[in-house]
Amino acid sequence: MLLPVNAGRGPPIVWPAPFGRDLTKEEVCIQKLNTSTGPSP
Q1: Which end of the chain is more exposed for a tag (fewer CB within 10 A), N or C?
Q2: 3-state class of 28 per DSSP?
Q3: CA triple 14-16-20, angle to 5 deg
Q4: What backbone phi and psi angles, to 5 degrees, belong to 34?
Q5: What is the pLDDT of residue 41?
Q6: CA distances from 30 to 2, 7, 33, 37 (A)
Q7: What pTM was computed for the model?
Q8: CB 29 within 8 A of CB 36
Q9: pLDDT per residue over 11-39, tens digit each?
Q10: How many angstroms separate the CA atoms of 31 and 23, rounded?
């Protein structure tokens, strides 16, 4: 697998929730886990 030259550099990308859609219960659970433990690299 080829990675871009700048892969792993700079701050992590935080993707916003889609506009106009509520998070599912699974997404809320994952969001809570990520805020308490940090997302996977």
Answers
A1: N
A2: helix
A3: 175
A4: -65, -35
A5: 60
A6: 28, 24, 5, 10
A7: 0.45
A8: no
A9: 777 787 778 888 889 989 988 988 887 65
A10: 9
